[in-house]
């Protein structure tokens, strides 16, 4: 695809639309962070960065870009891990981080309406202050809601509550041609034609620019208690997960972790974890409206874990303990990152009853490929995160071993009935693996949807499945 090279004449039009020079960054004004996302493996600078404050501004920019064939890249907080928000064709980057207002809390319809730049942690805090609950809980709390929707982010509470898609009622979207449209709304049920809203969720900014979201809320659970359960071996820990699922007691979260990752987190945070002596742990969370309700739920699971060889069941029933455990869990990614020179990630998902097979495979793979691999994840929903570490390897050798490891991991996930990504998306970096995992009919349908929304292919080109 041939695009117009952004020039001074285009800049003049953009500045006229924005009418605030501090919100238009050009050439040397563009911070290095705008050239990559969180893992920085994919890098490319935009020609201009526009910090938009309204759907109308984005509409005007998109209309100009569409008429002049200039590529546009949507950008939120830049916390992605697959290059979704990297400007591969340069052009215009629209940063929505200043569109960070909570517009309405509708207590009658149990919804909250937000702009895309609202941070996940800000939204969670706001609704909790009003005795409501927004369940999606991705690990990166400083990610924007627009980014969460664009990747259909999941997080730890997906076991019980589902993922971002399950909480999006309506969207305001700027299409690639600049038109502002609304998909969905505050209604609970909707069987009115194709669900265009759901096409936007998880589309990684390739179909339209999200400028407003209506999100579903739940009443806030009154109490939460976590169980930290040490096991002698990884196999015993992970083999217990399908049994917990079968017990029909649904925890809010079921996480698994290994001692080496906990030690990384202790060093990173400078704080001791409540227990770091065992090889493997399950971390379970239960919520409800009373201590009695939660105790009835976790008692059955605790007994089951002890029957399967758990060393102990540590109950985190104080706010201090709860915070120390989950703060350590939240620091795993940064802790692993700090333990090596560079890393790349694999975010795969398998059916819940195959998690134990996938984890065992990942645990043994490092010896086969001769590279350090650290793994943790959401054992209760089958979404696992593996990090391939460079350490002292040369760039060439690292890439060779990393690609081999990734091919093997994704192939194993496919064998187990899984998919390439559970919540991070495909972006630019993981495209080859998506193409290997899907048949040609699926890819052709995706290409047709992209063409229907964006016939000139100006919005976030080269992402997900595109060449």
Explain how this protein is built.
- It comes from Anaerostipes butyraticus.
- Strand 17 and strand 18 form a beta hairpin.
- It is built from 15 helices and 18 strands.
- The chain is globular.
- The model has no long low-confidence stretch (mean pLDDT about 95).
- The strands form 5 sheets. A 5-stranded antiparallel beta sheet has the order 5-6-10-8-9. Strands 1-2-4-3 form a 4-stranded mixed beta sheet, covered by helices on one side. It has a 4-stranded antiparallel beta sheet with strand order 13-14-12-15.
- With about 475 residues, the chain is α+β, with helices and mostly antiparallel strands.
- It folds into 4 domains: about 10-100, 2-Layer Sandwich (Uridine Diphospho-n-acetylenolpyruvylglucosamine Reductase, domain 2); about 100-220, Uridine Diphospho-n-acetylenolpyruvylglucosamine Reductase, domain 3, CATH 3.30.465; about 225-325, 2-Layer Sandwich (Alpha-Beta Plaits); about 340-425, Alpha-Beta Plaits.
Task: Write the SSE topology.
Elements: H1 8-18, E1 24-26, E2 48-51, H2 55-68, E3 72-75, E4 92-95, E5 102-106, E6 111-114, H3 120-129, E7 132-133, H4 145-151, H5 158-161, E8 168-174, E9 180-184, H6 196-200, E10 209-216, E11 218-219, E12 223-231, H7 234-246, E13 253-258, H8 259-269, E14 280-288, H9 291-307, E15 314-316, H10 319-330, H11 332-338, E16 343-349, H12 355-369, E17 373-378, E18 383-389, H13 395-415, H14 431-437, H15 440-453
Parallel strand pairs: 2-4, 3-4
Antiparallel strand pairs: 1-2, 5-6, 6-10, 7-11, 8-9, 8-10, 12-14, 12-15, 13-14, 16-18, 17-18
């Amino acid at each position: 695809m041939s695009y117009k090279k952004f020039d001074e004449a285009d800049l003049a039009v953009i500045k006229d639309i924005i009418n605030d020079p501090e919100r238009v960054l050009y050439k040397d004004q563009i911070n290095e962070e705008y050239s990559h996302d969180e893992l920085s493996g994919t890098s490319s600078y935009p020609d201009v960065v526009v910090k938009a404050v309204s759907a109308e501004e984005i509409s005007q920019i998109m209309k100009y870009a569409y008429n002049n064939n200039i590529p546009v890249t949507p950008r939120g907080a830049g916390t992605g891990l697959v290059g979704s928000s990297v400007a591969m064709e340069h052009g215009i980057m629209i940063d929505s981080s200043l569109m960070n207002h909570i517009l309405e809390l509708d207590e009658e319809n149990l919804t909250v309406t937000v702009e895309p730049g609202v941070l996940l942690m800000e939204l969670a805090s706001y609704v909790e202050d009003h005795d409501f609950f927004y369940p999606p809980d991705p690990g990166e709390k400083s990610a924007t809601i627009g980014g969460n929707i664009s990747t259909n982010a999941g997080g730890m509470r997906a076991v019980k509550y589902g993922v971002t898609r399950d909480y999006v009622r309506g969207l305001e979207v700027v299409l690639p041609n600049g038109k502002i449209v609304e998909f969905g709304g505050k209604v609970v049920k909707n069987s009115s034609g194709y669900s265009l809203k759901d096409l936007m969720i998880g589309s990684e900014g390739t179909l339209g620019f999200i400028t407003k979201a209506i999100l579903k809320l739940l009443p806030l659970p009154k109490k939460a208690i976590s169980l930290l359960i040490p096991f002698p071996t990884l196999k015993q820990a992970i083999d217990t997960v399908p049994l917990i699922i079968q017990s029909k007691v649904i925890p809010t979260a079921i996480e698994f972790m290994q001692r080496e990752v906990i030690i990384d987190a202790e060093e990173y945070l400078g704080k001791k974890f409540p227990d770091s002596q065992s090889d493997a742990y399950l971390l379970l969370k239960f919520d409800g409206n009373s201590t009695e309700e939660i105790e009835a739920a976790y008692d059955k699971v605790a007994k089951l874990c002890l029957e399967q060889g758990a060393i102990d069941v540590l109950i985190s029933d104080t706010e201090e303990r709860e915070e120390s455990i989950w703060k350590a869990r939240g620091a795993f990614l940064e802790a692993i990152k700090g333990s090596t020179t560079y890393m790349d990630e694999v975010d795969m998902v398998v059916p819940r009853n195959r998690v134990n097979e996938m984890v065992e495979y990942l645990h043994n793979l490092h010896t086969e490929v001769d590279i350090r691999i650290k793994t943790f994840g959401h054992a209760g929903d089958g979404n696992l995160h593996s990090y391939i570490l460079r350490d002292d390897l040369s760039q060439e050798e690292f890439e060779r071993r990393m690609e081999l490891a990734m091919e093997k991991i994704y192939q194993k996930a496919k064998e187990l009935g899984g998919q390439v990504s559970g919540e991070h998306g495909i972006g630019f970096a993981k495209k080859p693996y998506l193409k290997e995992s899907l048949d040609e009919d699926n890819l052709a349908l995706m290409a047709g949807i992209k063409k229907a929304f964006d016939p000139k292919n100006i919005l976030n080109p080269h992402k997900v499945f595109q060449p």
